[in-house]
Amino acid sequence: MKLLLTNIKELLQVRETAPIMLSGLEMKELPTLKNGWLLLENGLIHSFGKMEAIEGFSGVNTIDCAGKIVLPTWCDSHTHLVYAGNREQEFVDRINGHSYKEIAENGGGILNSAKKLQNTSETDLYNQSAKRLEEVMQLGTGAIEIKSGYGLTTEAEMKMLRVAKQLAKNYPIDIKTTFLGAHAIPSKYKGNKEGYLNLICEEMLPKIAAEGLADYIDIFCEEGYFSVADTNRILSEGKKYELQPKIHANQFTALGGIAMGVKHNALSVDHLEVLTDKDINALKGSRTMPVALPSCSYFLSIPYTPGRKLIDAGLPLALATDYNPGSTPSGNMNFVVATACIKMKLTPEEAINAATLNGAYAMGLSATHGSITKGKKANLIITKEIPSYGYLPYAFGSNLIDQVILNGDVI
Ligand code: NIG
Ligand code: FE
Q: Region 226-252: what's the mean pLDDT?
């Protein structure tokens, strides 16, 4: 199967050989090709070039992209897309002056979602999640990570991961799964955190690993949730099952979770809204990707991750949605890219690099995703007619996507 895109106004993120990640000043460069063509074959990027020198392709299905920009689909490396129900009441409570912390301490928050999920059948959970997945695919996401963490019992955690695996089977989007049993201490274990950590280590992890349900391991390292010592324990335990860490750290407090993540060779450390110079130094020289989640900052009115500071320190940065019912009920990567420019002062080039190549790295998908490179997956966004790629984050409230191609097929 072949598909040819012609008259492309500008093809973004064109790399002859793609680097696995981009750091510091490299993030300012977004290589492009103007007035180009792109040939897809058998679900992969086959070749591309300038329209002046287009080869004679006869009898090939063609999409005329005149006036349109083409770029790789977004790589969303941090979501909790599999969840049951919503929490709009907590949203209203926060408008009325109650804090996120206060709501969580009164049985809302993660525990509220866990109760809902435990009482939802696997089929219902699948159907609710499939709808969200279909929506984000239409919004241009071509690879996504999905975490557990709203189950908090062995059965419910496994149910979440099975749903994520089923979605991966049924949809043409690449899905990585992460075990986040240590997301919150369930009510049953109130005052007995050690008991819950034992359950994770002795029961959940072995079962999840035996069924091959997770690619990565995560923990919410935060005051009132899990400590740096707990993080050390869970990540060490995960290593026994070859689960590389991708962790939640520094959302509200800088506890030292980042250095602990780096010590365990975490693929990514995510959130980082509250960041110290010590945290930045811990990341230097590591292979750990810092991941910012600006929609979460927007929705909770908490600080934005100092992405400018991280990049100026020579570090890489990835952008993701954090799609979940409590802190980010949105899986829209276009909004993430725009918000990173508007609020975090990333340039459009930096934001697009962070949401494609660096997002792919944070899911272990550098070899196949995140750039227009021969042999990589034919996962593409074709925009509507727009004046320039800077218009994407600029016109932040408009849907500028015309078509999405996954594995070489228009979805
Ligand atoms: O990444 N911070 C921890 N977990 C989720 C949100 C939890 C919730 O409120 O449901 C997050 O923001
Ligand atoms: Fe999260």
A: 98
